[in-house]
Amino acid sequence: MALKSEGSREISPSFYWLGSGRSDDFLQINSYTVVRNGLSLLLDPGPVLLFEEIRDAFRAVTTDPVPSIIFLSHQDPDVCSSLSRWEEEGFCGTVIAHWKTAWILQDISTRCTVFGAGRDKALSPEISLMGLEILNLPFVHSPGAIALWDGETKTLFSGDLLSSFSQSEELYFETSDMEGLLGFHRAYMPSLYWLKNGLNEIAEKKPGLICPHYGTLISGKSEEVLAALSMLDLDDPRRIASEDKEDILGEIRKLKMSNFELKKSMVLSLDDKILDAVTGLYNQTYLDSFFPLFYNGNKEGYYLTIRLDDMKDFNSLYGFREGDAAISVLAQLLISIKEDGFLLFRGAGPIITMLVPGKTKDEVMDIMEHIQKEVSQSEAFLKEMTCSIAAVFLGDLAESSDPPETALKKALLIRLKYLDKLGPDSICLSPEKDQLPSGNPLIMIFDPDRINGRFLKDFLERRDYDVIVKTDGTRALHSIDMNRPSLIISEIHISPLDAFRFRSRLLESADLKDIPFILMSHIKSDPFVTRAFQLKIYHFLKKPVSLAELEGLVGYLIKDQDEY
Predict the structure, then answer these.
(1) Element of type H or E holding 354
(2) 488-539 per-position pLDDT tens digit
(3) How does DSSP assign 384-442, residue by residue?
């Protein structure tokens, strides 16, 4: 393996490209150095086979025989296998790597000071002195992937993200190289979810120059490249491949052992007690101590408990490792969609808690429905998932004689029991609905139009009916079997089943076939009416629904059931 170009090249003020190793499989390995404020930083020193070439190129642009700092974007041998050779040359400075990579470095007998990025909020003093920033880019492609950003020159050293297969003799990316860039990401990125997460992180920086570990450098074409990658169709975009995802709990155990042996930072030991290993969020222990402070300043806020549905069955089918991955995906999804000022914590079990200050009841309802939609449509989970959400208005806690923390726990317990009764993909918000169903007739409405569903729900609840609204047909039969409604009202177009197939399934069940079924749609054509008659559908309402007609029809059908 030889260098693609003899010597090195300045690619930006104080930044140098040290040449690229070429191999027959189109992988050209780039290393870089930054010389600033009396320090020299070597980025991704490369494989041991390229050590001499990279060493000579480094010494050609600095007066230092060895770098002050070595930065590792991830854990693979093509990045760090030459580290021991640099130690033989006299390197004894700081190695900066993700904390998941830091304990792996012991396996190659490093004697250097290792700074584990991404685990706590501490900053590397060397990186701060050089005016640089570390970006966390998990699972692109390894769990502990990081990048280096210089805001002054808008230069990004991106590691494997934005790398490409290339045999080009040119240093900079051309449009003709696009297929090689897409091909690299198809081969090495485990999940479209994590790829987009990384791309979004980078897009916010608006880099002018991108320096990847493989292939050509990208100058002035970052928007074009980011747009192309965001449309990439990976083989299985929902799954984070198990062979690429570390056992996080095992990593934590190893990290604790490493810290004990090496007597590392006390901050890390403290974080182990308050940070959740799966999601990286602060845990329930920290939330319990933090809540009084939040409550005192946000008595008009809401406390949301977001729970993935059917996780017991999920863990039994796929294992707890994949269950942890699903909870991690939920956390990342919530991080990506939450507004500024919202706070997230990992609760007990498959729960994420969100503290929401300064929102009205209707706004919180919109937030919860948006979360449910994002979860049900996300392709980052191993399988299609739904979530249920309970919310407590903090202003109601003052009405209790209990301390706020105790009143909150009691309110949450009631709401979670109510969610269990409602079934998957449910919401519990209104204080008057905290109790279990009142014994009034229960009506289930299936309508993808959230506004119409909420309007019909409010109308029927004012007439002493209990109402559950579902916005899609996912787990519809399970919800009906669990709740046994007195009446079903359904829009024709509900995903994934249309109302006719939905009704056909009900007719196959001896227990569910006699539940009255009302159809509604903007279109009331003769074929639809004929099909509804064949399936023993009691009535066909045309949208917009006449409320007088609905009230009379519902009263007639439910009264008819009671008399029967």
Answers:
(1) strand 351-356
(2) 999 988 877 788 888 888 888 877 888 999 999 888 888 888 888 889 898 9
(3) ---EEEEEEEGGGGGGSSS-HHHHHHHHHHHHHHHHHHH-SS-EE--GGG-SS--SSPE
Kindly state the helix (H) or strand (E) to which residue 267 belongs, with its residue range: helix 266-274
Q: How many CA atoms lie within 13 A of 211 on its CB side?
A: 27
In 3D space, the residue among 531, 452, 517, 444 whose CA is nearest the CA of residue 485 turns out to be 444
For residue range 433-481, list pLDDT tens digits in order.
444 455 688 899 998 888 888 889 889 988 889 888 888 776 677 778 7
Beta-strand relationship, 442-446 and 427-428? unpaired
Q: How far apart are CA 38 and CA 93, in angstroms?
A: 14
pLDDT single digits (tens) 186-216 = 888 887 778 888 888 888 889 999 999 998 9
pLDDT of 253 above 60: no
- Say which DSSP state 338 is in: P
Per-residue pLDDT, averaged over 271-287, amounts to 79
DSSP string, 496-517: SS-HHHHHHHHHT-TTTTTS-E
Buried b (16+ CB within 10 A) or exposed e, 532-553: beebebebbbeeebeeeebeeb
Classify residue 65 by its DSSP letter.
Answer: S
Note whether 180 and 190 are within 8 A (CB). Answer: no
Count of CB atoms within 10 A of residue 357's CB? 16
Residue 390 has a CB neighbour count (10 Å cut-off) of: 25
Task: Please list, in sequence order, all residues whose beta carbon lies within 8 angstroms of the beta carbon of residue 485, skipping any fewer than 6 positions away.
Answer: 442, 443, 444, 468, 515
CA dist 115 and 102 (Å) reads: 7
Is-above-0.70 flag for pTM? Answer: no
